[in-house]
Amino acid sequence: MPAGPHRIAVLVRGGLLTMELGIVHRLFRQAVSPAGDPLYEVLTCTVTPGEIRTDADVSINVVHGTEILAEADTVIVPASDEDYTPGVAPHLSAELADALSRIRPGVRTASICTGAFVLAAAGLLDGRRATTHWRSTADLQRLHPAVRVDPDVLYTDDGEVLTAAGVASGIDLCLHMIRRDHGAQVANEVARGTVVPPHRDGGQAQYVRRPVPTPHRSSTEPARAWALDHLGHPVTLAELAARASMSTRTFSRRFCEEVGLTPVQWLTARRVDRARELLEESDLPVDRVAAAVGFSTAVSLRQHLHTALGVSPSAYRSTFRGAMVTDADPGGPVERAEQQKEQP
């Protein structure tokens, strides 16, 4: 990360969805260093500074023009109510196109909900995997065939370009970016301060058929709570089903309906989450981290972490703890062994 706070520019348009702007400011402005220094600076801009209409009965006064995009480290484009005209792409005016051209090459760019149409119209999503609100994914694919639209996920991360499916998944995307920048501990503190779950996997389905159990109907939530308290132990589908007083077949079906993931997918993601925390916060050797979260070996942890993040445990620990551990550290030899295993 560069010296000083990471600058985020939020590019808004008329008909702005106020909640989406609030999400960006609220989450990133809560992220602080151990010394309490802000890790991000969030600024809002628009093509013509001044009063901007929102989707509510209030307007906002935006003082910054799009010149600040040229100095941004991350640019985020939220949705506008004008995006919801059936079958019509958001209008990319010459002024808006010029504004987007100010973004420096390689700068991280993200959209929330139908803000993806703006990025697509500017060609920023060509050849990339992206998503938007499930009601609009078919239009996005039809209008922009060069985009690889994934209609079934909460958010996508294609390196320097990210997209979120809707308002709530905008929270998930912002937390994902904070986690990517500064690790699980900072992201978890932001989530705790906002009173939201610290992590929902981006591959989780957008539309969960039964997010809240119907009255008098049993839920898989007690089994999930129990599993979180026993990540370091072997957890079988039969045990989880028994905790919910269901057959394994019924439990698996109900779990997918409530969570949007299979029990195995969900359990693996939670184990990876906990492993990330231990790699950031402790000096435990990698094999002990693996055991603590329920992966059978350090190799298994390495494989799952690489699948989720594209990095090894040693690389992840190095990123968020400043430097590789040495021989004097409890994890030193194991860390080097992990690196050696990755050599072709």
List keywords for this structure.
six-stranded mixed β-sheet; 42% helix; 344 residues; 10 strands; two-stranded antiparallel ribbon; alpha/beta
Bulk shape: globular
Number of strands: 10
Distance N terminus to C terminus? Answer: 29 Å
Query: In angstroms, what is the radius of gyration?
Result: 22 Å
Q: Going across the major beta sheet, what is the strand order?
A: 2-1-5-6-10-9
Secondary structure category: alpha/beta
Mean pLDDT: 85
Number of helices: 14
- The helix-strand sequence is EHEEEEHEHEHEEEHHHHHHHHHH
Helix content: 40-55%
Runs in which pLDDT lies below 50 for 5 or more consecutive residues are 207-216, 323-344
Strand fraction: 5-15%
| Biggest sheet architecture | 6 strands, mixed
Please give a structural write-up.
Helix 5 runs antiparallel to helix 6, helix 8 crosses helix 9 and helix 10 crosses helix 12. Strand 3 and strand 4 form a beta hairpin. 42% of the residues lie in helices and 12% in strands. By secondary structure, the chain is an alpha/beta fold. Strands 2-1-5-6-10-9 form a six-stranded mixed beta sheet. A two-stranded antiparallel ribbon has the order 3-4.
Summarize the structure.
This protein has 344 residues and is an alpha/beta fold. It is built from 14 helices and ten strands.
Write the layout of secondary structure elements.
Layout: E1 6-11, H1 18-30, E2 40-45, E3 50-53, E4 59-62, E5 74-77, H2 94-101, E6 108-112, H3 116-121, E7 129-130, H4 137-143, E8 148-149, E9 155-157, E10 161-164, H5 167-182, H6 184-194, H7 221-228, H8 237-243, H9 248-259, H10 263-281, H11 286-293, H12 298-309, H13 313-321, H14 332-341
Parallel strand pairs: 1-2, 1-5, 5-6, 6-10, 7-8
Antiparallel strand pairs: 3-4, 9-10
Helix pairs in contact: 1-5, 1-6, 5-6, 7-8, 8-9, 10-11, 10-12, 10-13, 11-12
